[in-house]
Amino acid sequence: MHLVDPAKPPATYEKPPPVHQTEIRTSIFPSSAVKLNTTSALANYATKAAEIVKPQKEAVAKSEISVVPRKNHNTFVIKDDITKAKFLKEAKLPKTKPVETLKRAACDPFLKCKLAFCKTIADECQPFLQRFQTSKPMTPYLFEAVEKLLRYLMNRCVKPDLMKCTGPKLLSIDTKKSENLILSKNIDIGFATKRLLGETAITVTERQKLEFIHECRSMLTTMIAKLQEKSPLKQKAVRGLSSLDPCVIQHSPQLAQKRFSFLLEELNHANIINDVLAENAKKEYLHFCNLKKSELQEIFRPCDQFSDEASTKIVDVTNLRAAMKRTKNQWSRVRKNASS
Predict the structure, then answer these.
(1) In sequence order, what are the residues at sequence separation of 6 or more whose Cβ sits closer than 8 angstroms to the Cβ of residue 291?
(2) How far apart are CA 338 and CA 224, in angstroms?
(3) Looking at the record, which segments are called Disordered (predicted)?
């Protein structure tokens, strides 16, 4: 191979372009930034590249490498990332309960299933919370809403023959007793949870699946017990105030009259209203419930419990007492005119 041309002085040879410390140029095209037309240029380039790569070996070994294309598609830049792999491996996490919980969760094959099950329960509870976290008079709707929520949870794990009872009788069902519950494998864990549980069949055993479902049942029974303990269904006034629910008045007038009478008894025993006022209120309520269904629908049309402009002339207890007071004043004037 011809190494040096003796007819040409060494000074006349073309020097290769300098190589930047963070840039390596390679190409096989004639338009390459590095001209490989002479052996000396190639030798010079190799020498320069060796000097550059040698001090970078340690830095590259300690860091992740990213290759960023430049305007010239035949040129690339090698640079160190800010985060070093070695540091991540040797990083010491704080020994706190949240960190330990996250570590266990990351290794839990049922993590997606647990999140899906909790989301199923939360999706049912969230509308209830949003509905009653308001300044509007929502007490008349509380009895039916709590009963509906409690029944929804109990239907997932309680035997069907025990769910035939209504209202406050749901509070008497002891979910801590296994004889009142269906088998763990038959409880309703939700469609999303069941689908994700089937996807874990490769990594877990059937025994582990049953243990997970049993945990779901334990969560349900604990939640139900807490609702039973703090339930507004225990309070007689809440049950009585449900008689002011437009749905109860329209669809169950007899039940509404029974509950309204119960409410008047509570108010009378608490000395909030006297006997005469209670009797008059009962007559007016009975007359109201006996109106035609079309008339009731027209009256309750503006009573939208989800609207800020809702009419509260029926559901507002304050207005009920005001109406009772007006009735009392009317009877006073009637008696005064009769005596004169």
Answers:
(1) 299
(2) 59
(3) 1-20
Query: 59: part of which helix (H) or strand (E)?
Result: helix 39-61
pTM of the model: 0.58
What is the C-alpha to C-alpha distance for residues 298 and 222, in angstroms, rounded to an integer?
44
**Those residues with Cβ within 8 angstroms of residue 208's Cβ, 6 or more apart along the chain or in another chain:** 109, 110
Measured distance CA(175)–CA(109) in Å, rounded: 28
Query: Angle 191-199/206-230 helices, nearest 10 degrees?
Result: 160
Tracing tokens 């040797």 back to the chain, one arrives at 90
Residues 6+ apart with CB under 8 A from 315: 137, 138, 139, 140, 141, 244, 245, 246, 303, 305
How do 65-69 and 75-80 pair as beta strands?
A: antiparallel
State how far the Cα of 279 lies from the Cα of 283, in Å rounded to an integer: 6
The residue type of 233 is L
* Token code pair at residue 172: 């008497």
Half-sphere exposure of 121 (CA within 13 A, CB side): 22
**DSSP letter assigned to residue 69:** E
| H, E, C per residue of 254-314 | HHHHHHHHHHHHHHHHCCCCCHHHHHHHHHHHHHHHCCCHHHHHHHHCCCCCCCCCCCCCC
pLDDT tens-place string over residues 246-301: 888 888 888 888 899 888 988 888 888 888 888 888 888 888 888 777 777 777 67
CA proximity to 155, closest of 120, 187, 116, 185: 187
How far separated are the first and last CA of the chain, in Å rounded? 142
Measuring CA to CA, how many Å separate 256 from each of 228, 260, 285, 322?
Answer: 24, 6, 9, 20
For residue 198, count other CB atoms closer than 10 A to its CB: 10
Per-residue model confidence (pLDDT) at position 293 = 73
Residue 230 parent element (H or E):
helix 206-230
Which residue stretches of 92-205 are H helix?
97-106, 111-132, 139-154, 191-199
